[in-house]
Amino acid sequence: MLHHYQNGCWTDNKPAVPPRGGPDGRGPIPPQPLATPGGSVDRYPAPRHGVGRRQNEPAAVLRGCFRGIVVTNQPLCREHYRLTLHVAAFPPSDPGQFIQILCPLAPGAADPPNAVDDGALQAKQWRLGSRPPRFTDPFLTADRPYLRRPYSIAGRRDTSTAAKAAGPRAELDIMYRVIGRATVQLEKLTPGDEVSLLGPLGHGFIRSDHLRRALLIGGGVGVPPILYLAERLASWGIAAVAFIGVQRADLLPLTLIADHPPATDHPIERPCLMEFARHGISSILTTDDGSLGIPGRVTTALRTYLLAHRQFDASSGVPELFCCGPTAMMRAVSQVAAEFSLPCQAALEQPMACGMGTCQSCVMKYRPPGALDWVYKLTCTDGPVFHTADIIWS
Ligand SMILES: Cc1cc2nc3c(=O)[nH]c(=O)nc-3n(C[C@H](O)[C@H](O)[C@H](O)COP(=O)(O)OP(=O)(O)OC[C@H]3O[C@@H](n4cnc5c(N)ncnc54)[C@H](O)[C@@H]3O)c2cc1C
Ligand code: FES
What is the pTM of this model? Predict the structure, then answer.
């Protein structure tokens, strides 16, 4: 029987217990060291797994809790916005990693009774001697987002400010679709507002040693990590083509280039989307209702494209697939990848609560390469990026 949860899966092995202090080994467990501090509050160690960036390269070493200052919060289409945040000393991040944003409270939302602001963003402390909270208190029954919400990093620019004392700053882009109580509040942010964010979290896409050509597949709210990946691939000089699928033309969160309308018939690469074209990447656009680009599913266009390009040019190498979007779309991409024997990675967007491996709300079934049995993995800390061949999609 499996007893212990260790390193993201259930195991028979007893977890390693840190040695106790004291001469006879019976004293309290000494505090465990945390990651190097610098520029943020509440730092905690990153997970041990070495995925992300180049194969065999160590993962990002730092993550933490930061204040993000809103630079812009612009509508992109009917339901999507781009939020740009200034964050001081944000650690290195990889495409596929995400941040957890504490979405602001609705104006006038009740605060805990007898609570005082402790100086940290939206954090409260109880006044000594005050009564404990009750489940019927208005601040607990109010319609408000208690949990942080995860958002993929959609882009990043690092600036060293002229005033050296202020230190390095990152400008982080996220793109969000307004669908519920937290995103309704995000929509109201204006330049200068502050939000609390945790990050960078999870592990990003892996760059294999064989990567020469990438096919990027983004659907709906899965477009943001694909944009960040496009930016990184361009900096590495890796050729890529983007396949973008949305439900309708008015839900496309990207900019069309007027001179280069998207192909409407066959999946022909065109520099039709500004966000990819600026990195020298051509795109193929599909809409479910046929209101723009090729009618139908993005996976159908991908399959047609691969059939037409079956004879992979030896110099350009076998293309590798990278995808993010609704689960059904990623499952379909995974099937296409299997059909053409192509490597494929997916950034899962499983609903999650803590984002840090504590609550176990984001488990997914994972079959390690070559193994018969599957194990549970945590999407937040073991992923969100996995090789699709290792994912059990049920
Ligand atoms: C790793 C990761 C990265 C993400 N990146 C982005 C991103 O870049 N942009 C973006 O817009 N969204 C992203 N999401 C999803 C995002 O976190 C949710 O859209 C957000 O939490 C919605 O909050 P809300 O309070 O507005 O909606 P809620 O009130 O929490 O939910 C509204 C409705 O959406 C459903 N829902 C919420 N989250 C998910 C989910 N993850 N999958 C399927 N259904 C869901 C709920 O069940 C509910 O029906 C990401 C999720 C994960 C796990
Ligand atoms: S979200 Fe809490 S463990 Fe993954």
Answer: 0.81
Tell me if 154 is assigned to some domain. yes
* 98: in domain: yes
Going 358 to 111 to 103 to 99, the CA torsion angle's sign is negative
* Residue 305 parent element (H or E): helix 298-308
Say how far apart CA 145 and CA 304 lie, in whole Å: 43
Element (H, E) at 275: helix 274-277
Q: What is the pLDDT of residues 306-337, one digit of tens each?
A: 998 877 665 667 899 999 999 999 999 999 99
Task: Say yes or no: 194 and 217 in one domain.
Answer: no
Q: pLDDT, tens digit, for every residue of 34-55?
A: 222 222 322 333 333 333 444 5
Which residue's CA is minimally distant from atom 47 of ligand 1? Answer: 351
> Domain check: are 68 and 160 in the same one?
yes
What range defines the domain where residue 274 resides?
208-349
- Ligand 2 atom closest to 379 (CA): 4
Q: Which ligand is nearest to the CA of 364?
A: 2
Residue 113 near residue 139, CB atoms below 8 Å: yes
